[in-house]
Amino acid sequence: EFVFGSSLGYKFVSKKELGLLQAGAFVQAASIFAGFILLGKFVEDQLKPGVVGLSPDAIMAMSAAIALLAISAAVALYLDIRKARIHARARAEVNKTGFEWLTSQEADFFLRKGRDAGELTDLLMESSEGLVNKILDTRVDLPRHFFTLLASIGYLGYLSPALFTVLVVVLGVVGVASGVFGQLAETRMKEVAAARRALDQKGKDTLGHAYNLKALGADRQAVENYRAVAQKFAVASSRHADVRAWAWMSTSALTDFASK
pTM for the whole thing? Predict the structure, then answer.
């Protein structure tokens, strides 16, 4: 939002490109889901009492499962390559647009709040990275994960209503925990970014005036000031790490329990 509105970034990735990525993501998710169902059916049939050797149906199921999993792997490779290329091109376009916007501002903009070139460049890079990631994650990865979740829950409900009930409860708790910790982690990440920028700025200011500080005998005080800012950055990073650890513990513990 520093340079762009929240929706402006979508013009850097065309609807056709997003549509192809979405279609590929659904094909990949459906292929791997169907492949594992067939693979599970094959293993279940082979473990039945009295079964010796491979029946024609078992061979067909195994072959179909391997084919579907191979298709899923091929599509996943294609998606990774396409997304990486689209990400690089879109980010370059976002950076170019942001830089043009910056250079079109009045001189007062650059003097406001003591902004310097380093701060503006870092902010531009952070904005472009976050904007492009948000587009690709929300338009491609999120629908695929949602489809896989619905398909898995539906299939589990078909196999075992009791396990289905347990999973729904676990997913509800995981969803709430993920939402709470996700918002908190985002807040902590903003604090870390602000503390990092403050530390960089303090370092530039201190080193830029090192000669004057030495001449005035204020170098020791400058070091103490830098240490204080560095300590704030360390505290912000520690808080962010704590939130991420709690998020991982709450969600991973529940999902591991449900999967087992």
Answer: 0.52
